[in-house]
Amino acid sequence: MSRSAHPAGPRHADVLPEGHYSAPPADLNALDPKVWARTVSRNDEGQATVGGLSVTALAEEFGTPAYFLDEADFRARCRAWADAFGQEADVFYAGKAFLSRAVVRWLTEEGLNLDVCSAGELSTALSAGMPAERIAYHGNNKSEEEIRRAVEVGVGRIVLDSFQEIVRVAHVAQSLGVRQRVQIRVTVGVEAHTHEFIATAHEDQKFGIALAGGQAAEAVRRALSLDGLELIGIHSHIGSQIFDMAGFEVSARRVVQLLAEVRDEHGVELPEIDLGGGLGIAYTSDDDPREPHHIAKALKEIVARECDAARLATPRISVEPGRAIVGPTAFTLYEVGTVKPLEGLRTYVSVDGGMSDNIRTALYDAEYSVALVSRVSDAAPMLVRVVGKHCESGDIVVRDAFLPADIAPGDLVAVPATGAYCRSMASNYNHALRPPVVAVRDGEARVIVRRETEEDLLRLDVG
Q1: Could you identify which of 309, 332, 381, 443 might form a hypothetical disulfide with 52, taking C-beta atoms 3.0 to 4.6 angstroms apart as the criterion?
Q2: 391 counts as catalytic
Q3: Is 51 left (phi over 0), alpha (psi -120 to 50) or beta?
Q4: CB 406 within 8 A of CB 416
């Protein structure tokens, strides 16, 4: 690979412009286990490896850009969540984070359930053998066709998201002669993101039925009155990339208050409560996520305490980790194409992917890490912006990071923690071909989602 030199940009923290970064790390060659999949390390030649295979060999076989998923890590995280919550609770993997038939088979084998929110996700789950009774169906605007199929195949629960949907699901279930198990998604007035939560009015969103004004209580009345529905509980989801449990405590308190109102009005104690997902992961070394057993212990204690205060039997808890399972297990591998220093600012490192394979930086201003993985370097740290090859100024993969000052065209760089919401939100912008997902385990690699081809694009173009 080329090692051609180029003028270096600013290297020292005291001359850096404002941005999303900390001081340069002490060792640019180190791969922080907090942000990389569990089997990632460097071999004696200085190349990063995953599952015992070097990134250089993987790039030669599968090309770049590509997502490489550590199957052993994924399975271990599934087991950790299942063990943390035990037999008295349910763990539903949030399929929207990343779903494929291989992933469905892993989930089934490791004992996790699955939540889906579209006909396509449901088809993927069923085609890979996930038992329908272990599937929850989400969505704020399910069509009658989607509902009918979900009821026909016997999904374990449908999460009701509006008054219209209560009637719609009941009608379909009655026409099929069944009682469909359902939960009501409520908006509890808590919004939590990362380290902050605001316990005020956050009903202004498309999801759920608000507790405010008695709307959720009315939804319960209607669901209990319809023969086609079996109301099993209340569902709440308060945000994403959450590290602080305080938001869950407020949410649980308000949901339990609703359960107490249901008991007092209807003489019914609903047996389940779903606290949703949104648990955070480490995208950078500064992030500090909680381990599953800490999360499980905290949530169980919160619900038990609130139910005890309300003189309610403690309901069965469900949670929906998606990002927290698949996010840390994968990285995206790129080849550097151009290196462009801007004097006094930073150096732009262009890679052969971009916003078509990771839209999160452009969409959410998300922060990521990046590392030179095809070799080690003793060059000084240099502030870079890793960008893609698309015709868009916002085509940024990593906004601000440090790479060795001798980074050059032909080098391989990798962005960790891209297992969630990267391939699942990938696009064909500029008619880019979506990258493959390659599962790596115990020295073997196999494609679980193949790379798109130009024939795939043209096949859809009927003009």
Answers
A1: 443
A2: yes
A3: left
A4: no
